[in-house]
Design brief:
Strand content: 35-45%
Structural class: mainly beta
CATH architecture of the largest domain: Sandwich
Number of domains: 5
Helix content: 10-25%
Shape: elongated
Number of helices: 5
Largest sheet: 11 strands, antiparallel
């Protein structure tokens, strides 16, 4: 099968005319992004082969004899074979946006908290190739060390590097171009979302007792979310005093102390009278928090008892920025008193955990990593998790994790990219209703009986085997279930198709 290969300038504005013969060696597709990999062989004049290095990050479009797009992506590696040498350029070691995550080591060998340098950018490289970001992680270094590491790394990595080596066996002149699908570019930037989890788990010493009288009630933490989200869980470090048995509830209030939502109860009898432990409170219906609005999240009990009450851990070091602990004295809200810092306002040890639909999280992550996509669409998954991310992983890694969680129908989320670079996420089809069939020779057909061309494999669909008279549908649908086609590869020279 003869397939045409078309390269464009990096800004998509014009075709690149190489004067070389291009043969497609292999094409790969995936249910996670559509076109995945391609291998192309270029042959022709020696000097023109050397010029093929300008193809790096150039858009690639492969079409069939009718001009229909078959595969599309960008070139990520070029290896040129000449006489007894081979010459390689690639994007794998190119990074033009760099920052360093680092930590100090103190004289007692304890490690400090994570710190970050500012980003350093090579704007010219970013304009030429797109933004490729990397987060370097080092322990036991100081701020100056981290900044110099960042700048030195950027200078060395911002532009493509060539590798010159001996060719194992001299032979014909040619260039080998490896291409990747556009979905892979989501791995070029790291993803971070500091919203959705508001917490202080520091070790600052302090306690506050409550529930012994109406003058000591509802210890709460003031916090202000930086993005809209839905509060689902709250955690506090608590213990009992005198074996209290009545229920505790978490309560969400506005900044003035007006009640907004109350969690399910937790029996006080489940608390230890000796040690503190994290106690989880669940809000039956997640409460929608509004961006930049101040709230209080706290814990309360209904009936005072001077002999059986509760203690909550506080942080007298005031480790939670932008908030502080408060309590209700029966008439007004006051700051929780500090023992070690009179006049200060300790924080609570707390966690306020929000959730949102994973479909919207996929959208947010894809938009954060998008450089080339013209449009991004996503489904409502019906599955909700916490959107907080601070792992240093790239956007693609985070998206694939969410896609594997699937939907409320227990089906995975798939993705495809169109030739016009529209990225869409969608629910895996129903396995009980496959649209594709395979005969005994390995050929694919639609459920209408139309033969599928080998370079249009039904990736992302379920297929049934139809090459036996001993399989009767729908009676054998459980004995011979449909097979999900996750990946496919095609070799044009032989017409071979391999599915996974």
């Amino acid at each position: 099968m003869s397939l045409a290969v078309n390269f464009s300038t990096r800004d998509f504005s014009a075709p690149l005319l190489l004067g070389l013969k291009a043969d497609v060696i292999r094409l790969d597709w995936s249910a996670y992004g559509g076109p995945e990999r391609a291998e192309i062989r270029l042959t022709g004049d020696r000097e023109k082969l050397l010029e093929s290095t300008r193809l790096l990050r150039s858009p690639v479009m492969i079409t069939d004899p009718a001009g229909t797009p078959v595969w599309w992506g960008y070139s990520e590696e070029i290896v040129i074979y000449l006489d007894g040498i081979q010459f390689r350029v690639a994007l794998d070691s190119l990074y033009n946006k760099v920052r360093v995550r680092y930590a100090f080591i103190s004289p007692d060998t304890s490690k400090g908290g994570a710190l970050f340098t500012d980003f350093a950018d090579d704007l010219a490289s970013q304009t030429e190739f797109g933004v490729k970001e990397i987060l370097l992680q080092r322990d036991g270094i100081d701020e100056d060390f981290a900044a110099n590491l960042r700048d030195t790394f950027l200078r060395a990595a911002a532009w493509p590097k060539s590798t010159l080596s001996q060719r194992p066996k001299p032979g014909r002149f040619y260039a080998f171009v490896k291409c990747a699908g556009w979905f892979k570019t989501l791995s070029w930037q790291t993803y971070e979302n500091r919203e959705g989890l508001y917490a202080n788990i520091g070790s600052g010493p302090g306690i506050f007792t409550f529930g012994q009288s109406t003058s000591y009630q509802s210890p709460s933490q003031v916090f202000t979310p930086g993005a809209s989200a839905s509060l689902k869980y709250a955690y506090f470090q608590l213990r009992g005093v005198g074996d209290p048995a009545r229920d505790l509830n978490a309560q969400l209030r506005d900044g003035a102390g007006n009640l907004l939502a109350t969690s399910e109860g937790v029996p006080g009898s489940t608390l230890s009278n000796i040690s503190y432990r994290w106690v989880k409170f669940t809000f039956t219906s997640a409460y929608d928090l509004v961006n930049s609005t101040t709230y209080m999240i706290g814990v309360t009990c209904n009936t005072p008892d001077p002999a059986r009450y509760f203690a909550i851990r506080t942080d007298e070091n005031q480790g939670y920025g932008g908030g502080y602990g408060r309590y209700f004295n029966g008439a007004s809200w006051l700051n929780i008193p500090s023992i070690t810092n009179p006049g200060g306002a300790p924080d609570l040890l707390f966690r306020a955990l929000c959730i949102c639909d994973t479909g919207s999280q996929i959208s947010a992550t894809a938009n954060a990593g998008s450089q080339f996509f013209t449009r991004i669409t996503f489904p409502v998954s019906g599955v909700s998790t916490c959107p907080y991310r601070d792992t240093g992983y790239d956007c693609l890694t985070e998206i694939l994790k969410l896609m594997d969680l699937g939907t409320s129908n227990q089906r995975k989320i798939l993705a495809k990219v169109t030739p016009g670079l529209e990225l869409s996420f969608y629910e895996q089809p129903n396995p009980a209703d496959p649209k594709i069939y395979m005969d005994r020779k390995g050929n694919f057909y639609s459920n209408q009986g139309t033969a599928l061309k080998p370079y249009f494999p039904p990736v992302g669909d379920f297929a049934r085997y139809s090459g036996s008279n001993r399989i009767m549908m729908p009676f054998d649908k459980d004995r011979v279930p449909a097979c999900f086609i996750e990946r496919a590869a095609y070799w044009p020279n032989t017409g071979r198709v391999k599915i996974n």
